[in-house]
Amino acid sequence: MTRLSSAFPSDRAALVAFVTGGDPSPADTATILDALVEGGADIIELGMPFTDPMADGPSIQEANIRSLGAGTKTADIFAIAQAFRERHPDTPLVLMGYANPMTIRGADWFAEQCKAAGVDGVICVDIPTEEDDSLGPALRAQDIATIRLATPTTDDARLPAVLDNATGFLYYVSVAGITGQQQAAQDSIAAAVAKLKAQTDLPVAVGFGVRTPEQAADIARVADGVVVGSAIVEIVGEHGKAAGPHVRDYVKSLSDAIRSAR
Amino acid sequence: MNETSPNSFRNQPDDRGHFGEFGGRYVAETLMPLILDLETHYRAAQQDPAFAEEFDDLLEHYVGRPSPLYYAERLTEDVRKDAPDGKGAQIWFKRDELNHTGAHKINNCIGQILLAKRMGKTRIIAETGAGQHGVATATVCARFGFPCTIFMGATDIERQKPNIFRMKLLGAEVVPVTSGSATLKDAMNEALRHWVAHVHDTFYIIGTAAGPHPYPELVRDFQSVIGKEARAQMLDRTGKLPDLLVAAIGGGSNAIGLFHPFLDDRDVKMLGVEAAGRGLDKEHAASLAGGGPGILHGNKTYLLQDEDGQIDEAHSISAGLDYPGIGPEHSWLKESGRVDYDSATDREALDAFQLLCRTEGIIPALEPSHAIAAVTREAMKMERDQIILANLCGRGDKDIFTVAEALGTEM
């Protein structure tokens, strides 16, 4: 059992919580990550900031700008991940971001850094299965999960290619769009998850546009995981350095809803 | 020339859209099925004589092609005054600034809107820097009756006001983009964000030979009309091929359009001219001269970036060259050594702009003014019987306000 596979309990959905690393500053991220764990997050997604986050809506774009404005470097992200691993030996941590910061020094370098920092998986938004060579083999060689995205446009013919070499879990992006905008209808999510689960044994986590405990609970009834990002990042944006307790309380409201959903 | 020769420079990209290590399809999964669908439709269009027929017909009767090939006699004489004895090559221009809408951009827009129509798409989006691609896109949308949304950086909107009005007259909606540096790269980010949310009905007309495969290939193919015409016209007029081709490079679509049909003519040298802005040691937009390989906007190519892969802001007096990347085929042509790349500063471009106004009675856009700056430098070093062919890819009406400000002139 890896940290990632044991993070999906059999009797309830897992809560996957995203924040942008280095927002509002590298020094403040540890407190926010601890608040995610205290609030009940099962898996942490740590965003690597990028100047051109073209799959993200305004909330996460602004978080990227705040992080880079605070001087966050790739080395800071790995330092944040490594310190998290020391404080939380059992909570899986996944890096999420864009291809250029991940590949600029070479895929092997990135994979080695992930391994050394105790990172469990990587989600790269703009490396689809067709370009897996650019990063996937290096990560898998270090036993780092390569977490793939499936979307409403991923049709039946294409799904096997997306699942090929997918590890850790499958991230179902429930709307064709950017992060933090609107949520898909519950019926379409249930149908999509059922279709995906028919083709893979990987846990399926659903995200994009999830904001309220009610939405989280609805998804928790049909999926193995619920991903929440923009709504948490907005709390960090509003409260800055003092965001910890607010993040914890909000995440706890999601976690409670998910735990009582089934 | 043989398209299938293994030694040809003209048979890129491979079937995954790679030009050597460059190019590719680095897009979010949501867009991937659409990109594959676009490729399928493009391959079918390439096999369909009716597609080529409609494209050629529109280029002739709507765009005004073929554009003239022009010997710039007074510019040539001007260069020879200062050149060493016996030096001073003949300078010829491919007059793509005479196209409908005033730049080469329209060639590509005609091709892509025909593809959009074939694919059954009902809305068009595009990004624009200088506004030339936005105007060309708005133009073809009006011509074919498609609703059109143009994403443009707020900074660029400020310096290209006449083109904003043109786009609006043509019925397009212009969306100001304020994120990042509020220039071309941010407009492209925003167009991609919009596209990902409207994949079912929307066609994205990318303006340069960049982005995910098959865009670099199809934009090149549509723009190759420039080089095909020029090659035939030059042979017809002089009985030989030019010794040197020169073109300005932002994303690189006018340059690849001129260069590509000549790539297997081994005696024809080629020079792409990037924007050196305030100088290569200061703020500039020369990704080949001052950048390194990276991944942005769907392709792997040379980018202006820091050691962590964060994208640097580009600077050029020409909004059309103000982009921190370059089409992937140029990255490959640089590494293969087939094409040379150089740069010209804002100041050199301004000087060349004025020189062409005075010697030839042609007001060029600031983009080809960078090429003209390099042309005058190169002509000095070459023999008098040698020929330089430069692409005059846009006219300068849109730039007169920028130039007036740079020269400190009240209008």
TrEMBL record, chain A:
Superkingdom: Bacteria
GO molecular function: tryptophan synthase activity
Keywords on record: Amino-acid biosynthesis, Aromatic amino acid biosynthesis, Lyase, Tryptophan biosynthesis
Keyword Lyase among UniProt keywords: yes
Principal EC category: lyase
One of the record's GO cellular component terms: cytosol
Pathway info: Amino-acid biosynthesis; L-tryptophan biosynthesis; L-tryptophan from chorismate: step 5/5
Keyword Iron recorded: no
Any coiled-coil regions, as ranges: none
Pfam families cross-referenced by the UniProt entry: Trp_syntA
EC number, UniProt record: 4.2.1.20
Catalytic activity: (1S,2R)-1-C-(indol-3-yl)glycerol 3-phosphate + L-serine = D-glyceraldehyde 3-phosphate + L-tryptophan + H2O
Active site residues of this protein: 45, 56
HAMAP family: Trp_synth_alpha
Stated family: Belongs to the TrpA family.
Subunit-structure text: Tetramer of two alpha and two beta chains.
Function, in words: The alpha subunit is responsible for the aldol cleavage of indoleglycerol phosphate to indole and glyceraldehyde 3-phosphate.
Entry protein name: Tryptophan synthase alpha chain
Organism listed in the record: Parasphingorhabdus marina DSM 22363
TrEMBL record, chain B:
Superkingdom of this protein's organism: Bacteria
Enzyme Commission designation: 4.2.1.20
Pathway: Amino-acid biosynthesis; L-tryptophan biosynthesis; L-tryptophan from chorismate: step 5/5
Reaction it catalyzes: (1S,2R)-1-C-(indol-3-yl)glycerol 3-phosphate + L-serine = D-glyceraldehyde 3-phosphate + L-tryptophan + H2O
CDD domains per the UniProt record, alphabetical: Trp-synth_B
Binding partners and assembly: Tetramer of two alpha and two beta chains.
The family this protein is said to belong to: Belongs to the TrpB family.
PANTHER family found in the cross-reference section: TRYPTOPHAN SYNTHASE (PTHR48077:SF3), TRYPTOPHAN SYNTHASE-RELATED (PTHR48077)
Protein name: Tryptophan synthase beta chain
Organism: Parasphingorhabdus marina DSM 22363
Lineage of the species this protein comes from: Bacteria, Pseudomonadati, Pseudomonadota, Alphaproteobacteria, Sphingomonadales
